[in-house]
Amino acid sequence: MDSVLYSIRMHASRAQRHLTGAEDLVPAAQIESVSHAMLSRAWMHKPEAVSLNVEPVAMQQLVTGRLPDLTLASVADVSSGRRLALSELLRAGVSPLAAEMAISSIAMGASCEGGVMRGAMLVDAGSGQRRETDQARGVRATRLGMSEEAQVVCEKLLAGEGLQHFRTREALVLSAKVLAAPGVIAELCWSDDPEYTAGYVASPKGGYLRIPQLKARGDIYGGRAFFLAAGSDPLAAVNFLEQTPFLVTDVGHVRREEI
C-alpha cells in the first residue's frame, strides 16, 4: 500500500435531485484514471451539476476492515423479499417497530418532504426513533474504498455468481464501513433506481444478505437505514461514518440460500 491514499468523491444531480455518486480511496497514481471513470459514469445520467472532490487521507486515522460474508437469497416476489428483510432485521436485534418503520419509510420516501433521501436514516433499533439531525440529507458513509488486492479477489468471487455490476461491490464496501461504526447493529438498503430491484440487509451477526426483489421494477423510491443499538451515541456513529477513512483489505465468503 502507498504511504498516502487519496479520497475521491463524485456526486451528480439534476434539479437539486441526487442522480448518482461514487467514491474510492486510491494511491496518487490512480487519481486520474479513477476520476475519469467516475465522471464518465456521472455523464451517463445527463446531470445538470457534477462535483468531484479529491483530498489526501489522514493515514494515522485510517481504519482497515473486511467485507461481510455475502449470502445470495432467492425470493419469489417483492412481498417475500420484504418479509425476508424484516426477519433478518429482527434476527440482528432490531425491534419489530423499528424494522417495520424503516421498511415503510423507504418504500414511501423517507425524507421530511416525502421524497428520496440522499443519505441514510439513523434509527434507534429499539424505539424506532430517527436520530439523524437532518431528515432531508440523512447520514452519509464516506471516505471509503478497497485495496487493489482485495478488489481483484472480490471481483473474481462476484463474477463467479454473475454479479459483475459495480453496484454489488460498492454496496459491500459501504456496508463493511457501516457495520464497523460504533453502535451500528444492522443496515437496510434498496436503490431508488427504477430499474434496479435488489437490496440487502447487513449485520455483524448475519453478514450481508442480498435480496433480489425489495421493490417492483419502475418504483422510484429507495434508501438506507442504519440501526443503532439502544443507548448508543449517534454523534460517534456519524463521525465515524462521515469522517474516518476506511479501507477494505480482506474479502468474505459467498454462498447461495434458497428461501
The gist of it:
With 259 residues, the protein is of the alpha/beta class.
Please write out the topology.
Blueprint: E1 6-14, E2 17-26, H1 31-43, E3 49-56, E4 63-66, E5 70-74, H2 78-91, H3 96-108, E6 120-124, E7 144-146, H4 148-160, H5 166-180, E8 184-190, E9 199-203, E10 207-211, E11 223-228, H6 234-243, E12 246-250, E13 254-258
Parallel strand pairs: 4-12, 5-10, 5-13, 6-11, 7-12
Antiparallel strand pairs: 1-2, 1-3, 8-9, 8-11, 9-10
Helix pairs in contact: 2-3
What composes the largest sheet? Answer: 7 strands, mixed
Whole-number tally of structural domains? 2
Low-confidence stretches: none
Tell me the total number of β-strands: 13
Q: How far is it from the N-terminal to the C-terminal residue, by CA?
A: 40 Å
Overall pLDDT: 93
How does the helix and strand content classify structurally?
Answer: alpha/beta
* Discrete helix count: 6
What sequence of helices (H) and strands (E) makes up the elements? Answer: EEHEEEHHEEHHEEEEHEE
Shape: globular
- Please estimate the helix content: 25-40%
> Strand-residue fraction?
25-35%
What strand line-up does the widest sheet have? 6-11-8-9-10-5-13
Q: Kindly provide the radius of gyration, computed on alpha-carbon positions and rounded to a whole number of angstroms.
A: 17 Å
